[in-house]
Amino acid sequence: MAVSTPAVGIVGTGSYLPHEPIDLEHYLAAGLELSPMDRGPLFRPPQRRHHVKPGDRASELIERAALPMFDRLGLDPARHVDLLLTNVLLPDDLFTGSGADTAHRLGIAPRTVLDVHNGGCASFQYMMEIAATFVGAGRARGVLVANVQNTAGQIFEQDGNRFKQHSLVAGDGCGVAYLAAGAETGGRLLGVRTRNTPSTARDIGMATDDGRHYWESGPSVLDVRFDPAVTKDTVEFGNRIVPELVRELADECGFDVADVDAFITNQPNRIFLRNWRTELDIEEERHLNTYDRYGNLYGAAVPVTLHDAVTRGRIAPGDLVVTAGFAHAGDFAAACAFRW
User: Fold this and answer.
1) I need a labelling partner for 238 at 20 to 30 A (CA). Which of 130, 139, 279, 331 fits?
2) 6: buried, middle or exposed (CB in 10 Å: 19+, 13-18, 0-12)?
3) What does the longest C-alpha to C-alpha distance in the chain come to?
4) Could you give the residue ranges of the DSSP H alpha helices within 184-223?
5) Structural domain of residue 238, as residue ranges?
6) What is the pLDDT of residues 210-262, one digit of tens each?
7) End of a domain among 188, 217, 232?
8) In this structure, are strands 2-4 and 187-196 parallel, antiparallel, or unpaired?
9) What are the pLDDT digits (tens) for 56-90?
10) 218 lies in the same domain as 107
11) What is the pTM of this model?
């Protein structure tokens, strides 16, 4: 589905990476042995990543990313946030999500608070669509969007998980963006393209060696696993879906993929990054990522990398910026475009 957007745009970005970075040498010293393939250019783990620690709350990460952003913008969030959208991979609280505690920490009381849980690694684009819908309906003028990845330090660092391939590439972090109606600076939202594929929703999930549900007590370690029977299909689908949506978005918005100045995606591994830009014929220098510094940031990868690019001057006025990603085993995917 494509969504044309009202006059709304990103006027500020921010990020927060918890604690000191953990180098790959930390794992090698702890007994990790890399195969010759794992040492190669496509399969080697990221050199660094950040991990949350026990007691770190997702709302705290959002606070540390958002408040400096509002300070830079010279805005009081209590007066300028009507809609708060959060996506947190591992919510701190079982029933309430992270939105309410985030609002409390920021000292805001938005008209609407939504925890957008199902968007996963494509949730940044999904929240752009929701923000544009609310602004277009006159229900919001200022929107705070926040993505948090916090499973690396809480699930993947546990004994029994630490040296697994998906654990080694995962990092924790938070990315935020502030959108405003009628924004004349920053990134003007041109359009959003989304696709739901519900049949793949159960191809990934929480799993234990003894088969217990995640809420049941037991000695086994909780992990995240793909259905091994469809792993090949999942990889092929992930390789295909992101370029498809980018091309569809380009057609809807009237631009050529060749004209994209900055392409930012979720960053599961180096292979997906390579395959996506190869399929779209986008040079590596235009496909921005923070994988080697921060690892797989899941849903937070797009806003963290966007803020990094803006801060480093990798995005200039007039640039066409496209962000995209797919979630979980592909049950949701999305792309969006901005004119900076």
Assistant:
1) 130
2) middle
3) 57
4) none
5) 194-339
6) 989 988 998 889 998 888 888 899 999 999 999 999 999 999 999 999 999 99
7) 188
8) antiparallel
9) 999 999 999 999 999 999 999 999 999 999 999 99
10) no
11) 0.95
